[in-house]
Amino acid sequence: MINVQIGLSIKEKNLTCFRVHHLPITYLGLPLRPIPNVKAPRQLWNQAVEHLERMTVCWTRKYLLMGGRLILIKSTWSDLPGGELCSLRYDLTVPFARYVAMNGLTSFKRYQIAKVYRRDNPSKGRYREFYQCDFDIAGQYESMGPDFEVIKILTELLDELNIGDYEVKLNHRKLLDGMLDICGVPPEKFRTICSSIDKLDKQTFEQIKREMECKWRGLPHLVGLEAWVGVEEKGLTIETAEKIGTFVKERGPPLELLSKLKQEGSEFLGNNASVAALTDLEILFTALEKSKCINKVVFDLSLARGLDYYTGVIFEAVFKGATQVGSIAAGGRYDNLIGMFGTKQVPAVGTSLGIERVFNIMEQLQKDQNQAIRATETQVLVSIFGNDLSQAAELVSELWNAKLKAEYMVNKRPTKHFDRAEESRIPWMILVGEREQNEGIVRLRDTTTREEILVPRSRIVEELQRRLTPSS
C-alpha cells in the first residue's frame, strides 16, 4: 500500500509541530497524510462558490475563462432577474487573492487543499471536479526569496511522494515578453501568441506556427468563437513566426542556458524586460543550486503558462515516466492579482499540485509492480461471530485507544467476515466466537498467509502493536 502524504509543517525557532490535514475522502485507496515541509504557513479555508462579478476583475473585457472555454457575458449584472450570479471556483489562486485583499493583509503564507471545478471533457488526467494542493506566499520579501522557497517546497513534496523521475520546467514572463518584442510581435498580441506557445507540449511547432501565421478567412459562426478570435488576432509574418521558433527550442540546465542568454551579443541584453528577467533568474538559480534542488529544474523558453495574471517566474512540474497525465504541478509569480480586488498591490507567488494526477501515476506504479491497491487504511478487523455488539464495542475501543486503525463486524456467518477482510485487504483479523469468549482468548489471523494463533484476550493489543511495528 502506498501512503500519499500531502500537507505542511510549521517551523518556529527550535520547535517543529505538524498541522494535520486529512481529506474527507480517499481516492483510489490512497490516503492523504501530512508531510513536514512548509516553513510557517497558515491553513486557509474558503467557500467553493465565488461571486462571478468579483472574478471578472481578473479578465479583460467581459470574457470569462472557464475550463478552457471562452464564454461571452452579454447582459450587465443589473439585468439579472434577482439573486447573484455565482460560479464554482476555477482554481484556489484567485479566491486566495480576493481573501488577502478583502482582509487588508500585506504579508501572508498559506496552504490549502480543496476542490476546484472546470467545465471540461472528462478524460485521463482531466476532471470536472478535483482536488488541488496550493501553497502561496504574499508580501514584500527579499528579491526572489519567495520564488525560491515555493520551488524548493514543490521539489521536496514531489520527492517525498516518491512517484519517480520528474522535472520542473521554468521560465519568466518578462523574458517571454522580451523574446516576443525581439521577434517583432506587437505588444497587443503578446498574450495571444503566448497562448499558442503554451500548446507546444501537445503540438509540434509546425502546427503552432501555422496557427500564428494564419489569417481569418471565414465567418465566426462557421469556425466557432474561440477559433475565430485566435486566427483573427494571431496573424504574424512567416519571418516572425520562424524567429519565435528558434527561441522556444532553447531548453537545458538553468545556469548553462542562463549563461548562454547573457553572452555578449545576445539579443536579450538589448531588451529591458529580458534584462530584468535574467537578473531575477540568476538570483533564483544560484539559490536553487545552493539548496541542492536545481538538478530537478529545466530552464525552458517554450514554457508560457496560459493564465494572464502571471508577471514573473512561471514553472510547471511534469512526470517523466510512462504514465502521461500532463503537468502535475504548476505555479508562478502574480504581483498584480491581489491589487485587482483592493486598493493595495501585494506581490505574491505560489504553486498548485494536482492531487488526482499524482494518484493516477501512483496507481499505475502499483499496477506495474503487481501491488494491490487497498481501499482502506484499516489494520485489523474485529470479527464477532454472533450478535453481541457490546463485545465488539469493548474490543475495538481498546484498539482505537491504542491508536490502531480498526473496524468491527458483528455477524453470525464467518464467510461474511472473511469476505470483508479479503475485499478490503485488511491484513489482520481478531476472531471471537462463543468458545473464545468462554476461554478468555481471541484468534489472531494473518489474512495474507491465513495462519492463526491464539492470544490471551488481555494481551491482544500488545501483540498487535508488536506485529504492526516495522522491524529495525
TrEMBL record:
Domain of life of the native organism: Eukaryota
Any single biological process term in GO: translation
Catalyzed reactions per annotation: tRNA(His) + L-histidine + ATP = L-histidyl-tRNA(His) + AMP + diphosphate + H(+)
Entry keyword ATP-binding: yes
GO cellular component terms attached to this protein's record: cytoplasm
CDD domains, per database record: HisRS-like_core, HisRS_anticodon
Protein name: Histidine--tRNA ligase, cytoplasmic
Organism from which the protein derives: Vitis vinifera (Grape)
